[in-house]
Amino acid sequence: MKKHGILNRHLSGALAELGHGDGVLVCDVGMPIPDGPRVVDLAFRAGVPSFAEVLDGLLAELVVEGATAAAEIHDANPAAADLLTGHFPGLHLVPHEQLKALTAGARLVVRTGEARPYANVLLRCGVFF
Length: 129
Prior knowledge:
By secondary structure, this protein is α/β, with parallel strands linked by helices. It is built from five helices and six strands. 30% of the residues lie in helices and 22% in strands.
């Protein structure tokens, strides 16, 4: 049994299968998820677990070389915008409709319990060397 890090066996296993360039969408409860990507649904209740908690846990385990979010995040959810720009100074912003389209190419979707709008980010996996 693991004693620290991500304990959810479905999420831990999915992360171990990721490679360089793979996409991981971390999303709120309202984000439409297309058929295709593997989904690990962590949502328990509205707000639980939060987008910030899940993102922080994932960033402790993954090498990320880039991130994309919806441009609408700045007006609709300033707290999430600040969180993302703090983690990703080169955050790439696209219209929300384009972010939804990009989701189809993700290898993994991690759905949080976040109930604030536009708390979504598409991470691009890097390598540790």
